[in-house]
């Protein structure tokens, strides 16, 4: 058996459900990045898991059609992460609300198994308001 042997039966038929869910559970993702992280992170996110979403855009401090990235802030710093997130949410609402069922915020150091996400979301009603995530405790320095 060869590793690239499509007739091996390994995971046979699994893509059928994934393909069906991609049509019925439409998910858009906006991904926070920086110009400095383009070649180290963002291009690899785009080449792997981002393309499995029905739509995605990067949010940065520079427009970059090759990703595509949208300019949300003037300068990069940790203090503008919230501004970039709000920009991403507003952009998703204004440009994409009618074309997608669910919306996700990610970072350029995130890894998403989009098919598993879709399977989880397929059990939810996209008309119901819901936020999924994890609350992190923040300590003061």
From TrEMBL:
UniProt-annotated location(s): Membrane
Recorded topology in the membrane: Single-pass type II membrane protein
InterPro entries found in the cross-reference section: C1GALT1/C1GALT1_chp1, Fringe-like_glycosylTrfase
GO cellular component, one term: membrane
Alphabetical keyword list: Glycosyltransferase, Membrane, Nucleotide-binding, Signal-anchor, Transferase, Transmembrane, Transmembrane helix
Enzyme class name: transferase
Fringe-like glycosyltransferase domain sequence ranges: 27-135
A Pfam family hit: Fringe
Main location (coarse class): membrane
UniProt-recorded Gene Ontology molecular function terms: glycoprotein-N-acetylgalactosamine 3-beta-galactosyltransferase activity; nucleotide binding
Superkingdom assignment: Eukaryota
Gene3D superfamilies listed in its UniProt record: 3.90.550.50
Pathway(s) the chain acts in: Protein modification; protein glycosylation
Family: Belongs to the glycosyltransferase 31 family. Beta3-Gal-T subfamily.
Name by which UniProt lists this protein: N-acetylgalactosaminide beta-1,3-galactosyltransferase
Species: Dibothriocephalus latus (Fish tapeworm)
Organism phylogeny: Eukaryota, Metazoa, Spiralia, Lophotrochozoa, Platyhelminthes
